[in-house]
Design goal:
With about 290 residues, this protein is an alpha+beta fold. The chain has two domains: about 170 residues, no CATH class; about 110 residues, OB fold (Dihydrolipoamide Acetyltransferase, E2P) (Beta Barrel), CATH 2.40.50. It has eight helices and 15 strands. The strands form four sheets. Strands 3, 10, 11, 12, 13, 14 and 15 form a seven-stranded antiparallel β-sheet that branches. The chain has a four-stranded mixed β-sheet with strand order 4-8-9-7.
Amino acid sequence: MNAQVQVIDRPTAPTIDIDALLATGQERGTFQPLSIDNLQKTLGELITELDPRDEVRPLNQASVRYISGKVAVSLRELDGAWGTPTTLTHRAYRQLGTKVLGPRGLDFIERQRQTDATGERMATINWLERLAHADKQGLFRTMQFPGEQFRTIRGVLSGSDRGFTTNLDNIDVINLLADSPEFRALPLIDWKVTPDTMRIRGLLNPEDGKMFDEQGRPTNPRLVSSRIPVPMFEIVNGEVGNHALSFTNGAYTYICTNGMGSWGSDSFTQRWAHIGGGDRGEKVQLALRDALQ
């Protein structure tokens, strides 16, 4: 499997950071069109390994505390006992803080907990006090990252009936793309899947592939110096409330060999938000299918 799951150790951060779950690109000097079938297979295997789970709970059934500088969340079980602690990604930590503490409340808590042991205890007390009055529902999205003792919350989203719809996950998008003859005819340059976002980038003209290296960066200096536009497309999806499903196509102009560039004025982007009720996912999938055609 092409998985590249790596936990980044940042001792001063209270959260768990992951660089990438899955990433691949091109061999230098050659272009082998990447297959959506391979992405479908490897992403499916990775999902099985990471065992994602969703749980909708009132926020006041959660407990937040700091253990050796790291934040831990426990949810109350049916018998009233606290469940097994879970860690959080940076995004999930910010999302939970916004929902419970307000837009700037987490910044105050962070300054407080970093003072000393007393400040850390006070930060925990502040969390408990605010959580006790947080009666809204929250959708907790967790995964079991390799090498980690506990599961990790990677998103704390709206738990309302018209909130985040879980049938717009990355694998559902990939399955739709794999079923599209129009999309299967396009060569992919690279893809990257993180706990937050999936990005797929490809070419509209297969012969343009020789101008890119294994990182999807241009290897032809003339391509950069002459500002030659490259017909491309990009699909981005966010599973944890950070990005709508979007489809961009048009001319992409590179301004540096490190891959930096911008879409031209002729580019077109369609976006579909992850909200809107139980049938929203089906409507978005239909719209994406039309966009691919």
